Structure formats: structure tokens, C-alpha cells
Amino acid sequence: MIRILLAEDMHMVRGALVALLTLEDDLTVVAEVERGDRIVPTALECVPDVAVIDVDLPGLDGLSAAAQLAGQLPSCRTLILTSLGRPGTLRKALAAQVGGFLLKDAPPDRLADAVRDVAAGKRVIDPQLALAAFDNGENPLTPRETEVLRMAADGAEAADIASRLFLSVGTVRNYLTTVVTKLNARNRVDAIRVARESGWL
């Protein structure tokens, strides 16, 4: 019997996932949590074989929780679920040494098979997402350019960014222009969209 910890903050989705998984004779859900910061403490109590974790959780995001879980309970493998197939998120998931990465709109039987494969030590990755990550390449932005774009994405004006980073307003504008060019974006808003979709912000 494969013991599963399920981390999902949406009650209806969590209930549906539990129902799906418990239909399988060899799978049992031993714990459910709705926050990322509850994953490690709960896993240490019930020692699951696989943690099925939503990537977007309150308290602590799913990837950070998966990385902590790998450090504190290496016997528990992780399967990340996401509704958004961002190539950058997949790269972060692989860096966090997760066992699997699956889109939430995958067929229900795919989830049960993915849990079994991850429990057996195999790596499970949605093929379309893997291809997109391969095609997408690495983040072309420098750490400073990423920092400036992140602050712009949070609504900060050039003058605010300049004062917080101890730069001139002109330098901040130059960074934003460079970012737009590097990402082949139409403008700053488009650059933010491209960076988010690629998992770089």
C-alpha cells in the first residue's frame, strides 16, 4: 500500500483528488493539508511514501516545501501538481529534486500511475511541459534585471525602484529597456507577462 500525503488549498479539488486516489486498491491518503508550511510537520508525523503537492499553496509554496521535505524526510518522494504549465516552474521543480511534475488537467488515471511511478523511484514529467522547458531555455536576465522587473511587476515606479536600489532613475529605465529587448517583449507589461509565464519572476 502506497501512503500519500496530499497538499492542496482548494477544498473541492482536494476532496476530488482524495476520492480519485482512494478508488485505487494500492493507494491510501494518510494525511491532507491545505498549507505549504504544514507539509513537513505532517509528513514527519505520518511518514508517507509520496507527497502530492500543489505548486501554489499559502504559507509556503509547494516547491519550497518539497525541497524542505527532501532534506528532512528523504524517504518521502514528491509529485508536484500545477494548473499552469510554466517551463520555468518545471526547471525549479527539477532543481528541488521532485519526483514528478504533473498538470492538473491530466487524465485521472494518469495521477494514480504517476504516484506509483514516483513511489517506485521513477521521475514523472508531463511530456508537453518537458518539451516546452527544453525549448524555452534559461533566463536571459541578469539578477539585477530580474530584481528591477520584479519590483516593476509589483507596481513600483522607476523612481521608487531607483531609491530602493540606490540607483539613478535613468539607470532603472535603462534596465527596463534592456529587459524588454532581451525578452522580445512589446513593452514593460508584456515583459512582465513573458517573465512570469517562463517562471523567471
Description:
The protein has 201 residues and is an alpha/beta fold. 52% of the residues lie in helices and 15% in strands. The protein has helices spanning 11-22, 39-46, 62-72, 87-95, 108-119, 127-136, 143-153, 158-165, 169-182, 188-197; strands at 2-7, 27-33, 50-54, 77-82, 100-103, 124-125. The protein has a six-stranded parallel β-sheet with strand order 2-1-3-4-5-6, sandwiched between helices. The protein is elongated. The longest helix is centred in the last third of the chain and has 14 residues, at 169-182. The model has no long low-confidence stretch (mean pLDDT 89).
SSE blueprint and pairings:
Blueprint: E1 2-7, H1 11-22, E2 27-33, H2 39-46, E3 50-54, H3 62-72, E4 77-82, H4 87-95, E5 100-103, H5 108-119, E6 124-125, H6 127-136, H7 143-153, H8 158-165, H9 169-182, H10 188-197
Helix pairs in contact: 2-3, 4-6, 7-9, 7-10, 8-9
Label the structural class: alpha/beta
What characterizes the major β-sheet? 6 strands, parallel
Count of DSSP strands: 6
Q: Order of strands across the widest beta sheet? A: 2-1-3-4-5-6
Unreliable stretches covering 5 or more consecutive residues: none
Mean pLDDT equals 89
Short recap of the structure:
By secondary structure, this protein is an alpha/beta fold. It has helices spanning 11-22, 39-46, 62-72, 87-95, 108-119, 127-136, 143-153, 158-165, 169-182, 188-197, and strands at 2-7, 27-33, 50-54, 77-82, 100-103, 124-125. Helices cover 52% and strands 15% of the residues.
